[in-house]
Fold each of these.
Amino acid sequence: MAEPLTREQILDTTEQVLRRFGLDKTSVVDVARALGVSHGTLYRHFASKAALKEAVAERWLHEVSTPLGKIAGEEGSAFDKVRSWIERLVHIKQSKAKEDPELFAMYNALAEESVEVITAHIHELIAQLTKIVEEGMKSGEFQKGNAHEQAAAIFYATARFHHPALAKEWASSHIQEEFKQVWSLITSGLVKKS
Amino acid sequence: MAEPLTREQILDTTEQVLRRFGLDKTSVVDVARALGVSHGTLYRHFASKAALKEAVAERWLHEVSTPLGKIAGEEGSAFDKVRSWIERLVHIKQSKAKEDPELFAMYNALAEESVEVITAHIHELIAQLTKIVEEGMKSGEFQKGNAHEQAAAIFYATARFHHPALAKEWASSHIQEEFKQVWSLITSGLVKKS
């Protein structure tokens, strides 16, 4: 008798099939065929093609948020943590884009279609960053203020270095230098303190 | 006898033809036909289709850089000027995208094809901003440092609000609030000054 289908197995196969046929041309029947099951069996796990695609997008985004969540939970100075967190985010996105640009583009198209999944992902990332910023405000490392707003501002001010829609520019030989300059601006500020 | 062809006339017509046929399907012959001249005549003004497209992209980008250049040249506090400059840049890009998303997308595709044109445009913008930052460093409004690097950092840290590849997100109801938060972060900095 065949082993029961696991969720991971279905998502692995869906990924392979999506990669072979592309986002638009992949059907649930294709995935079922690649798994060697009927599409009825597959529909018992995922009620629609949209649900299946969302699950793939969600798993991919967890590969980003999970290591970042660990950094947010570590001990240490808030300044070091916020820097590690942003650098790790930038590193994860840029290395995925570099290693396999096609797969990266496919995943981003997939995530863009799943608005709720991507919104939840951004919220999760900003919540992690908010936690670090709160710690820094409490410890006196950071200026007092609204930690959530400040975290969102850090996230958006570094978008050039981690937003998938800007991936084409990450190949620039200046990109690391530019990140350092933006980081220094964000942390120290433009205006002279009196 | 026909009036002599002006450069502006050719670019206006090219714009209309590009709009009707799209970037890929427009040929120099189409533009010549719309102008009522032979393509030989048109080639005397622009040596290739690429040159014609570059000229259209350049003119469009000047609509962005010219009003910004005026702000950079005004009298007044550097702080007010840098804020006006960035707000104007954000406003120009976001209103063009809103008024006519298709034309906006076409122009950006056109500009992306003309790498030298877009590079020169970014350099011009950062040079304008550098001038304002230098003034602010001299007047003591801004922290001392490398004005060019600081200007580039301001430009890149606000990319979310003016980079055409992110235009889809400008429709968000939070976008103005997010700009304010990023602006406040950039000017004041995250870290508490001792």
Note: Chain A has two domains: 7-45, 49-188.
Amino acid sequence: MARKLESNPALVPFGRHVAALRKQMNPPLSQEDLSGLCELDRTYISGIENGKRNVSLTNIFRLARALGVEPKDLLDYPSAGEP
Amino acid sequence: MARKLESNPALVPFGRHVAALRKQMNPPLSQEDLSGLCELDRTYISGIENGKRNVSLTNIFRLARALGVEPKDLLDYPSAGEP
């Protein structure tokens, strides 16, 4: 049985920011759409948005390209990096 | 024997940026200093700076705190995210 992932408080705001960027697209993207664009599994996208996945730098680059933003914009949100 | 790490072209510019930020500190930090500040092994820091480590988001946060910058500043360099 797959290990149940716990959300990491330091990652939750990042996840919310990714979800907000996804929904602000025109037209808004579903997690499935984003998953296809950045070739990451939809459940992995869901895990990122719920603060349960400690995403790697290359996957940050993939997300940024798919969302049409600069990588630094993905980390541009209040409380970024606070423990 | 430890697997020899290859550098990832997408990670090399990030590594150079981290090394530049480290050396711009006042006083400049050694890799050993930075390693102590963010509680990451010195060889891991060296691997990051040589584009051989696909650093995770929580470690990006650690590096940013240790270098006294915002996480988004760590991704603010030319060609960030280009394949």
Note: Chain B is about 55% helix and 0% strand.
